[in-house]
Amino acid sequence: MSKARRMQPVARIAQQHSDAAARVLADNRQQLAMKQQQLDELIVYRDEYAQGLRHKSRNGLNATQMRDYNQFLNRLNLAIEQQQLAMETACREIESSKQDWVGKQRRARVMDNVVDRHRQQEQRDHAQQEQLENDEHALRTPRRENG
Description:
Blueprint: H1 3-59, H2 63-140
Helix pairs in contact: 1-2
């Protein structure tokens, strides 16, 4: 079995690992997009709630209502902070999975190049062997002279 054929399974596995790492990276990016959407929704909701609070406070709220509104607003702010932290974590996961994918992709390319080099060397060796056989055959075959 030729070196190129022996190396093909290794190159195929390296490509599979690269593909899997690419899927993880895509999943992580999708998770970040979802977290960003959730954060945006929380911010919009908080802003609308705060605007409603300002409007109602102009019309007059008792102390209990004001306390309840402020407590809920504080919970919304806390949820926004937690979502921002979740996004930071997601960004770190993306960076990590990107580095993993780049490394695995590089390894897959290297393995493909190794297989290609072996295949090219085998083709050169085969062509050289054929040329030697043709030369030997030509030397063994008696020449006919015209005449």
